[in-house]
Amino acid sequence: MRLKTSLLKEPKHKELVSCVGWTTADELYSCSDDHQIMKWNLLTSETTRVVKLPDDTYPIDLHWLPRSVGGKKQSHAESFVLTSSDGKFHLISKSGRVEKSVEAHCGAVLAGRWNSEGTALATVGEDGQVKIWSKSGMLRSTLAQQGTPVYSVAWGPDSEKVLYTSGKQLIIKPLQPNVKVLQWKAHDGLILKTDWNSVNELILSAGEDCKYKVWDSYGHLLYSSQPHEYPITSIAWSGDGELFAVGSFHTLRLCDKTGWSYALEKPNTGSIFNIAWSVDGTQLAGACGNGHVIFAHVVEQRWEWKNFEITLIKRRTMQVHNVINDAVDLLEFRDRVIKASLNYGHLVVSTSLQCYVFSTKNWNTPLIFDLKEGTVTLILQAERHFLLIDGGGLYLYSYEGRLISSPKFPGMRTDILNAQTVSLSNDTLAVKDKADEKVIYIFDALSGKPLGDGKPLTHKSEIMEIALDQKGLTSERKIAFIDKNRDLYITSVKRFGKEQKIVKIGTMVQTLAWNDTSNILCGIQDTRFTVWYYPNTVYVDKDLLTKTLYEKDASEFSKNPQIVHFVGNQITIRRADGSLIHLNISPYPVILHEYVSSSKWEDAVRLCRFVKDQTMWACLAAMAVANKDMATAEIAYASIGEIDKVQYINSIKDLPSKESRMAHILLFSGNTQEAETLLLQTGLIYQAIQVNINLYNWDRALELAVKHKTHVDTVLAYRQKFLEDFGKKETNKRFLQYAEGLAVDWNKIKAKIEMEIAKERERAAASATVRASVTVQQ
User: Fold this and answer.
1) CA atoms within 13 A on the CB side of 716
2) What confidence tier does 374 reach under pLDDT thresholds 50, 70, 90?
């Protein structure tokens, strides 16, 4: 990826340009110390003067009122705030008319920023004050007062906090009084510029120590650049938070959100005092010290999938390279490309007005449809369909271009969603809520309605990243997520009434990804790269989970690596310095998943015998139990030396009725409640009581016996024997109450138990006869 810069031969401004701001994706306003405000139209390449300011007004900062005001999305910005050296800020309309001038600070107003809703304005000045104003320019509060000038200000993602500079310090101050203020030393020199992104919630700072730095919202340093030759005079996030730009003397740099640099340009600009990204994030403009305005387009983005490599070579042209046969295709578009995604055999490209869907089998005839809203901010793909996210909502399309659904939830803000907070599979869409970070909304992809009982999934702490598995049945769909403590959890998305278990399967997890062809999960936890070959093991046999893992030392990936893809058996990881590392894992677990999904148990056993790997046997054991194939489970458990489980499986086989066997398989997986419910529903009361006795759930066993008026003496006899074995006396009042005047006769109890077993055998034989006669009739 790099920047393609353009400068006019002669500057349009006679003095230094102090600030720039975009109204639409193709129109920019610039202000200069020559008191002129100029309008640049990139479509017609025309530059016109909007207004000449009074001679005593030297502009310093400009910020357009956000385009979505009061829930209404406007196609372009209508007015902007301009701060100036005379201590005032001016609210100016698009035509250049000064609507209002407000005396704001003693000395220059060094920066002014609207919040994301456009309902409040923050200004900072040489007098060291931070002030909050209403949209109409009325003072709401003076947030801070200090002895040094404040050079830069930025709103927090939720507009509840303000970030500002104080010499070498950065300060985050909430608008609410009596809430803790966060302050830390960020640079060794004066901090000149700062920016806070609402999508990734990361903070940028640039200073006179010639460095730029990336921080998280708690003030932890994520990246620090090497010192440049000159102070960093400007820094700015792109709208989607994936890139940022850095400006210095004769220097313009494009960086990834993790800090490493994509490209360095050395244009003849003097110092770049201000950088503004266009609304669609495809280009940026810089205010230059020599009177120029520099424009830079982001080109040469790359997308890879299997044997295809696609590069955006110009704003409207993509090059497709098939590395197998070296074939090269050029794709031309009517408008400039904004976003693209390549996965599952399809390339989806959104331009400013249309969406193109290409199949990797045929690059000549794309499917094209018009977009409802303006700029697409995110494209996510699944095997059967893809999701477009723009300022107006979430739209799910089939690869034939048909709109499938448009899910909505209360308080939905689509402008701050990214690939970590939205996940898509063939039948499910999951979205992390921004208003309450502990909540994940889960939708049926085809209808757009909430899944299950309609309640969102709620966790006990804030969720950072979510991912849905891609394969298997809808009823078994799983979601994995990382929370604020960096713990990795997995749970089922189908939630009807009963509280679904959320199970922790990893700690200190930085990043995760599901495989595209089978439900294998990989992640980097602490110093180890881990692959969970069958994460569902936690619901089947928790003890087996550690045996189904593949682990590898992750020190080679350096600090804060990110998993980019997990396709087939190849994993692509991006290190903190931007370099890509490709890892290959064993292809056998993927083959095992395929065999099991098509119920080829003999082939699965044969594969495990061929590979001779304990991990494979452990995966097969868990898969077999999950699919109730106990014969295969017995072979697999025997191969990994789990003799106690083999014996239990053998005892299950000897049970007379199908219902009993099912209940004991549920017990094997730890689902006690479900096993009991199944036995009670099929009228096997004694078996349900015996299950609770075996698990020492004495109170529940007695409760069932009393409720169904049977086997009370059996429960009391086993309880008495249990207490005698441990040399204890009965203290439970309920047991004492029912034991009064009851003598335990073991012969009688044994006869009753044998009678129950005989009854169950008769029932099983009768139902088998019925089944056989039905089959004959058919």
Assistant:
1) 20
2) low
